[in-house]
């Protein structure tokens, strides 16, 4: 016979999967929300600063010559592209000034730089089209999106299959973009809306296989920022724990942290900042991704409760000596329920 723990595990996954299938993705759209869209012929640096000004993490890209969307540009795309120019075109301010003069389209056409647009059709190196789920998702030109009448499950599955952190919601009739959503926003809606009287989530998170507990990436206080950014790009992760000289977690560095750009006065100072230690950058930053931690023995229920309180993007799991042994993201939590 199946033991009680396994029965509760299956029941918990089934309950949340059913919830995700029953709710429309349109419920994530804010009535006062706005969507920033970039034409690909504008300078990429101008697009980056527009994202910051509008407090948007991502924006759809519109190719007016082809009259179609070709994907998304994110803040982290720009950071990775800047690092590429810094490393490949000479580690000087002049290389960064070259990037500042290029349009989004010109960067996309660069075979080595364009791949850093991870949400754009041109960035696909495998030659394959989008991997669509069976629900109301589609390929709108080069833009992988979900119809507003699709389910939350459709949205999560499309993000999983295509390794997307952002997903546009599209009006089915006119293909207008209503919003661009993330795993955090979907999970935030879930914890605020889902109701279940049974206690189905008391199993330890590590036993459920949620998150990364093998070969956990972390950096030390003295690691140069350029090496931290390279690690994030190589591992395809958005944040990494920073440990002190004793190996205990001290902070979390997020890929979207642009302090090294915000504090730079010119291209040469950007280069200097890239060579600075991550500890120096952390001391300068104005805003940050807060460090949230939990025990490696934490249950799924306690992780949900913590998310309800602090809306974390990434949760660092610690051993009894406060050393990082695992990382759980909002994406990991949602993927677990995609049966």
From TrEMBL:
Domain of life: Eukaryota
Pfam families named in the record: CBS
Keyword Repeat carried by entry: yes
Keyword field: CBS domain, Repeat
Residues annotated as domain CBS: 30-88, 210-269, 287-339
The keyword Repeat is assigned to this record: yes
PANTHER family: AMP-ACTIVATED PROTEIN KINASE, GAMMA REGULATORY SUBUNIT (PTHR13780), LD22662P (PTHR13780:SF35)
Protein family: Belongs to the 5'-AMP-activated protein kinase gamma subunit family.
Official protein name in the record: CBS domain-containing protein
Source organism (scientific name): Aureococcus anophagefferens (Harmful bloom alga)
């Amino acid at each position: 016979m199946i033991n009680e723990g396994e029965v509760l595990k299956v029941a918990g996954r089934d309950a949340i999967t059913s919830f995700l299938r029953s709710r429309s993705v349109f419920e994530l759209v804010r009535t006062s929300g706005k969507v920033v869209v970039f034409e690909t012929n504008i300078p990429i640096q101008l697009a980056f600063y527009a994202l910051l000004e509008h407090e948007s993490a991502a924006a759809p890209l519109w190719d007016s010559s082809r009259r179609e969307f070709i994907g998304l540009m994110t803040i982290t795309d720009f950071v990775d592209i800047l690092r590429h120019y810094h490393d490949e075109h000479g580690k000087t301010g002049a290389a960064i000034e070259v990037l500042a003069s290029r349009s989004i389209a010109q960067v996309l056409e660069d075979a080595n730089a364009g791949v850093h647009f991870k949400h754009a059709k041109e960035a696909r190196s495998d030659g394959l089209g989008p991997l669509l789920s069976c629900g109301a998702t589609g390929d709108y030109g080069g833009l992988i999106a979900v119809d507003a009448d699709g389910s939350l499950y459709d949205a999560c599955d499309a993000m999983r299959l295509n390794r997307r952190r952002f997903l546009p919601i599209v009006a089915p009739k006119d293909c207008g973009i209503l919003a661009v959503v993330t795993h955090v926003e979907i999970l935030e809606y879930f914890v605020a809306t889902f109701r279940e009287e049974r206690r189905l989530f008391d199993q330890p998170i590590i036993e459920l296989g949620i998150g990364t507990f093998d070969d956990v990436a972390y950096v030390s206080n003295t690691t140069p920022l350029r090496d931290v950014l390279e690690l994030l790009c190589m591992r395809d992760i958005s944040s990494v724990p920073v440990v002190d000289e004793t190996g205990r977690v001290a902070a979390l560095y997020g890929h979207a942290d642009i302090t090294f750009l915000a504090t730079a006065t010119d291209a040469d100072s950007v280069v200097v900042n890239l060579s600075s230690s991550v500890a120096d950058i952390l001391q300068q930053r104005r805003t940050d991704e807060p460090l949230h931690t939990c025990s490696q023995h934490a249950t799924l229920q306690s992780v949900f409760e913590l998310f309800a309180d602090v809306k974390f993007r990434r949760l660092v799991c610690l051993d009894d000596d406060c050393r990082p042994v695992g990382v759980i993201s909002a994406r990991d939590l949602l993927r677990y329920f995609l049966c």
